[in-house]
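Weekly modeling sync, notes
Attendees: S.R. (lead), two postdocs, one rotation student

Agenda item 3: backlog of single-chain predictions. S.R. asked that every request posted to the team notebook include the full sequence so nobody has to chase files. The rotation student volunteered to paste the first one in as an example of the format we agreed on. Action items at the bottom.

Example entry:
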Amino acid sequence: MNTTTVKAYGTEAADTPLKEMNIERRELQPHDVEFEVLYCGIYHSDLHQIHNDFGMTAYPIVPGHEIVGRITKIGSDVSDFKVGELAAVGCIVDSCQTCQHCDEGQEQYCDSFPKFSFNSPDKYLEGKMTYGGFSKTYVCEDKYVLHMPAFEDLASAAPLLCAGITVYSPLRYWNAGPGKKVGVLGIGGLGHLAIKIAKAMGAEVTVFTTSPEKVEDAKRLGADNAVLSKDPEQMKAYMGTQDFIIDTVSAKHDVNTYLGILKIEGTLVLVGLPPEPLEVGAFNVVMGRRSFAGSNIGGIKETQEMLDFCYKHNIVAESEIISMQQVNEAFERLEKGDVKYRFVIDMQSLN
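Predicted structure, as returned to the notebook:
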């Protein structure tokens, strides 16, 4: 298959900084959409993949899976997109399309495992891996491309492609809305969007954080209540009060403390990815028929629904816009938690 050489930013080893490199994108197939990348969010999983923390990284790697762009070409069989329109790609760029989960629009749970926007085997280029959005252009099959609404702050909407759908999907599944009390555990890239989205859905939102500084910021973000979880007296006041808690923490923590915050038959859902296993005490779920669950991103249809919802309610991430040349510094700061609350790369800087 013919390919096109494209400028990108990536790395060839776990211990070397990202640098400018050239990659190969496939020639346009009949169902493909090509777009110029305008903005790309930086997510914690990009950092994990670069450092091979999951043990599955194939080098060279070009990260980036919160990709927003403007369409430059469409394949001959593409009817739902037009050149010049805004478009976006999130985590998923391929799935089997035949299993029950794909049929139900839950491609993230595909029986054959979905292909991701970077570091997945590329079915079009034998022996190659997919390259992500830290690049000048992106090519993707149309059924995995999203219609990007014209957000006033388009750059800050990029993190919705992963962080946004990661919190939107469980909030929708567990029916966050009027009359429901929703707890948000942790205020970071995921948590700050969970506050905004749950509040827009009509829920009463209570934030639980270990940071006094973030107790103050929670109200600015729209939370009704904010609790310093290191204060036993504050925590005691909220025991048995929440219908649902979304746990966005990716560090080791004691979930048992928060299971007690749930009402009878309440659910705590984990969307963060702590590197070590979490222990759940049997009595903390058995007494009160409480549930400890998990959720992973969302399917393509639901991601489009999320984008439209966030556009309607003017929800975007709190973002720091950086140039491509600042990306290594941004990853160092991300590792230290020094960001409020997301980095987004202005990809025009790659030129």
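Discussion: group reviewed the output briefly. The chain is about 25% helix and 25% strand.
Action items: rotation student to repeat for the remaining queue; S.R. to check formatting next week.
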